[in-house]
Inverse folding.
């Protein structure tokens, strides 16, 4: 599945390089214009990251997000600093199809598991951003905006959340994010083999249609496309020709 994505700061479409707010690129098209374009080219699902909310949940762009959801005819999943039941509930209440939970899932598993039980596993994506240890090859989840190693591997966390019906995992190899040098195909092959019941969404590094094809063949359920679309490397329509949405 092809899932176009945009990141927002102050209502404007931006991209950060490897999560660094100091290395920000701002784009001229509005968020709604971007979503409209992606839908017109065939997108059936969209991904939005509220970077203001990621920094400070009190500054979540709820009005902007609500308007985007109301004016976009396909489902949208929302991420960015969802750290409490109230954060998740507020987004689901304004029409988000799924909420994307990151660091909180690592730090407060008992609480987040309750959200799975109350909201349903189909409405929650775990966003697990990883650094791969060069010696042990272990895949450790990073937290606090990628600044801190949690000490927990992605495999350990997935096994822990299986008890509440974990269905969707958005997995980013941090070293590939924003580079346009290709995604970590081997990572998704390994995860899909080990956890065939989980739908893995690949993220980070996609820069060409060849990268899309490689990810398609990795066993991943879908791929989030951000910078490559914003910079015109290819279109959603062209990506869908490589990997048609089911």
């Amino acid at each position: 599945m092809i899932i176009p994505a945009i990141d927002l700061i102050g209502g404007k479409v931006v991209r950060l390089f490897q999560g660094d707010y100091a290395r920000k690129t701002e784009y001229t098209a509005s968020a709604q214009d971007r979503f409209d374009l992606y839908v017109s080219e065939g997108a059936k699902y969209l991904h939005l990251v509220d970077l203001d909310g990621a920094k400070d949940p009190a500054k979540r762009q709820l009005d902007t997000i609500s308007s985007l959801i109301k004016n976009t005819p396909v489902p949208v999943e929302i991420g960015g600093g969802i750290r409490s039941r109230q954060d998740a509930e507020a987004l689901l209440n304004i029409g988000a199809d799924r909420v994307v939970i990151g660091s909180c899932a690592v730090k407060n598993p008992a609480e987040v598991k309750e959200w799975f039980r109350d909201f349903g596993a189909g409405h929650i994506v775990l966003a697990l951003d990883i650094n791969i240890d060069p010696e042990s090859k272990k895949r450790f989840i990073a937290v606090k905006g990628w600044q801190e190693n949690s000490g927990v591997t992605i495999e350990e966390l997935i096994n822990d959340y299986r008890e509440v019906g974990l269905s969707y995992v958005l997995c980013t190899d941090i070293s590939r994010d924003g580079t346009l040098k290709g995604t970590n195909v081997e990572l998704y092959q390994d995860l899909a083999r080990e956890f065939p019941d989980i739908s893995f969404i690949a993220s980070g590094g996609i820069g060409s249609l060849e990268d899309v094809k490689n990810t398609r063949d990795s066993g991943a359920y879908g791929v989030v496309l951000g910078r490559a679309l914003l910079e015109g490397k290819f279109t959603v329509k062209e990506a869908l020709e490589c990997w048609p949405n089911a």
User: Anything to note?
Assistant: The radius of gyration is 17 Å.
